[in-house]
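RECORD TYPE: inverse folding
INPUT: C-alpha cells
STRUCTURE:
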C-alpha cells in the first residue's frame, strides 16, 4: 500500500477510536447513576374546584373527575386535588388555596361555576359578569406569582335533558371564563363544551349511569341529581380533560395515556 494511503488509514482509524472513547466516557456517568437520560421530568398538576372535581372516600357513590384523572396520566405526572364540594370562586377557602400555592405545582387547574350560579341570595353565589370574573383573575394572578401555570377549566355541563335536548344553565359562567382566559392569556380547557357535546352525541339514556340521578336536588331542572358523577361518568369526564392536556403546554405533550374503547370515542 502506498505510504500516503497508509497515513490516511491510520488517521481515520485514530479519529474513529477517539469518537468511540468519547461516547463511552459520556455514557458512563448516566449508566453508573442508573438514570435514563430521556426520562421525562416529574410534573405536578394541582386542581381546585367544586364537587364535580373533588375526591371522595371509598364506598361513597360520588366521584369527581379529578379523582379519576390519574388513570389517564403518565407515571411522571402527580395530581394534587384540593377541590371541595359546595365551593365557588368566592367561597373556596383560603387555607386550601394556600396549600395549593405552597406545594409549588407546575400547573393549577381551576374549575368553578356550578355553585357560583346558585340563587343570588346564597353566600356562594357570584355574578357571571362581575365578581366571578374578578375572582378568576385573582386566581390566575396568584398562581403565576407562585410560579405555577394556571389553567382555566370551564364548568362541566350538567347532564340535564328536557324533551331530548340538553339544557344549559351554566353558559354565562362558561362564557365568562372564556373571556377571562382570553384577557389574561391563560390556557383554557373548555370542558363545558366538550362535555355538553358528548352528552348530546350519546343522548340521555346512554349516559344515564354517569350521574347519581337521586332525588332531593332542588337546583336541578331535570329529575334527580344530574350534576354529580358516578365513577363511570367521572372517568369519561376525566378522559375529556386528559385529551385536552397536550394542547395546553409543551410540557404536557406525552403526559397522558389514553386507552381506546371509550364511549368518548366517536
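DESIGNED SEQUENCE:
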Amino acid at each position: 500500500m502506498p505510504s500516503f494511503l497508509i497515513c490516511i488509514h491510520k488517521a481515520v482509524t485514530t479519529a474513529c477510536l477517539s469518537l468511540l472513547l468519547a461516547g463511552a466516557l459520556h455514557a458512563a456517568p448516566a449508566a453508573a447513576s442508573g438514570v435514563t437520560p430521556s426520562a421525562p421530568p416529574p410534573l405536578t398538576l394541582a386542581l381546585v374546584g367544586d364537587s364535580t372535581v373533588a375526591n371522595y372516600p371509598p364506598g361513597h357513590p360520588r366521584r369527581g373527575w379529578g379523582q379519576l384523572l390519574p388513570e389517564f396520566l403518565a407515571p411522571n405526572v402527580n395530581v394534587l386535588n384540593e377541590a371541595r364540594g359546595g365551593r365557588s370562586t368566592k367561597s373556596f377557602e383560603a387555607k386550601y388555596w394556600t396549600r395549593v400555592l405552597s406545594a409549588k405545582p407546575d400547573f393549577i387547574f381551576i374549575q368553578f361555576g356550578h355553585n357560583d350560579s346558585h340563587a343570588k341570595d346564597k353566600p356562594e353565589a357570584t355574578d357571571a359578569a362581575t365578581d366571578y370574573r374578578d375572582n378568576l383573575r385573582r386566581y390566575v394572578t396568584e398562581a403565576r406569582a407562585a410560579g405555577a401555570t394556571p389553567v382555566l377549566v370551564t364548568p362541566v355541563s350538567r347532564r340535564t335533558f328536557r324533551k331530548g335536548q340538553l339544557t344549559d344553565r351554566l353558559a354565562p359562567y362558561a362564557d365568562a371564563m372564556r373571556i377571562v382566559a382570553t384577557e389574561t392569556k391563560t390556557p383554557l380547557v373548555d370542558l363545558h363544551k366538550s362535555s355538553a357535546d358528548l352528552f348530546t352525541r350519546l343522548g340521555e339514556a346512554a349516559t344515564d349511569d354517569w350521574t347519581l340521578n337521586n332525588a332531593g336536588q332542588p337546583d336541578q331542572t331535570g329529575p334527580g341529581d344530574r350534576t354529580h358523577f358516578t365513577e363511570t361518568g367521572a372517568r369519561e369526564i376525566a378522559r375529556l380533560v386528559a385529551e385536552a392536556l397536550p394542547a395546553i403546554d409543551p410540557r404536557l405533550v406525552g403526559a397522558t395515556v389514553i386507552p381506546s374503547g371509550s364511549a368518548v370515542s366517536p
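NOTES: Confidence is low (pLDDT under 50) at residues 1-32, 215-222.
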